[in-house]
Write a structure and sequence with these properties.
The protein is 30% helix and 22% strand. The longest helix is centred in the last third of the chain and has 20 residues. A ten-stranded mixed sheet has the order 5-4-6-7-1-8-16-15-13-14, sandwiched between helices. It is of the alpha/beta class and 392 residues long. It contains 13 helices and 16 strands.
Amino acid sequence: MTELSQAYITSTGTFLPGDPVDNESIENKLGYVHGKPSKLKKRILSSNGILTRHYALDDEQRSTHQNRDLAVAAVKQCMKGSEIDDKALDLLAVASTQGDLPLPGLASLVQAELAIGPLEIITTHGVCSASMMALKSAFNQIRLCEKKNAMVVASEMASRLLKKSRYEAVSNLRIDLESEFLRWMLSDGAGAFLVQEKPRWRGISLRIDWIEIISFASHYDLCMSCGTNDQSLWSQDSKQEHRLHDISWQDYSSYADAEANGALLIRQNLKLLEDVVKVGVDGFLKLVNDGKIKADEIDHFVCHYSSHHFKGRILDLLKLAGALIPEEKWFTNLYTKGNTGCASIFIALDELFKSGNLKEGQTIFCVVPESGRFANAYMKLTVVGGRDGGTI
């Protein structure tokens, strides 16, 4: 049996496009749908608690970057702090909710822009847990000694789905909470990790102790989606009834018809959203019961909650279960960096990694709940010192 190696996050990087956009300016940046201010914006923003975020858009809703550009910029920042050259990379794993093209995968586009390789590539597609899927793949390859290092990058460019023209293209549009909710929740950004078989020579590294990813897609309906008209309606087609949200955007006679029918709007089923918190907490409690983590041994808790509203719900459930993680141990930059989907956990860990607050031997516990069709990712990290015997 092959002896497993260790895997360490040795360098991190982040890229956030443009200047921070505050709540007063957000609709100027995304545009007023049919020239009218939103009736729901203030309600959603007051719940999510986000104060500033970033968009790869100019004031005319034109893209300033491609998603691959965000990823490349994060990788380059990560490599600046590394102890190796990018030409030495063995694996490139790229995660996103959606790339720039339906095909090829985003990793191919990022590799081309970086001008590295030949090397192995991985593209993971999903919602918030896509970054953890990419990271676990890299983690496992390094543990199995198939690779010595891997660059893992998560990049999101949600703004292209949020600009006013997307909503104005829908025929007889009735903007409701479920179709507008994510417009005021999501933003753009990318984060990157260099993972290696050994820790840094100087400074701290994060040893990846384990990663668990659990999907509940067979237990829940769609909660967050794009590419289908997710409504509880029925239609008649060839004498067979079917729900409209069973139809893909590719099933319409033209892409224009799909957009006009609202199939390309990004939606959130708010009736199911509260269940995401419970499923995530239940998963954590199972890890506690299985002996994989102890709540009182966690020094830093990094949870990708998408809205301040959910922080209170998580605290309540943890307290009720007798596994409370004190608030002073929580770390998030949701309020200043926004909800960047699968990139959020990387962007948060990048800031924590560079904060100066990590000490050798400390434990970091990460949780990434995903509302797409319900998946949860969990990760335990341990802070280790440099191979030269120092931590700075």
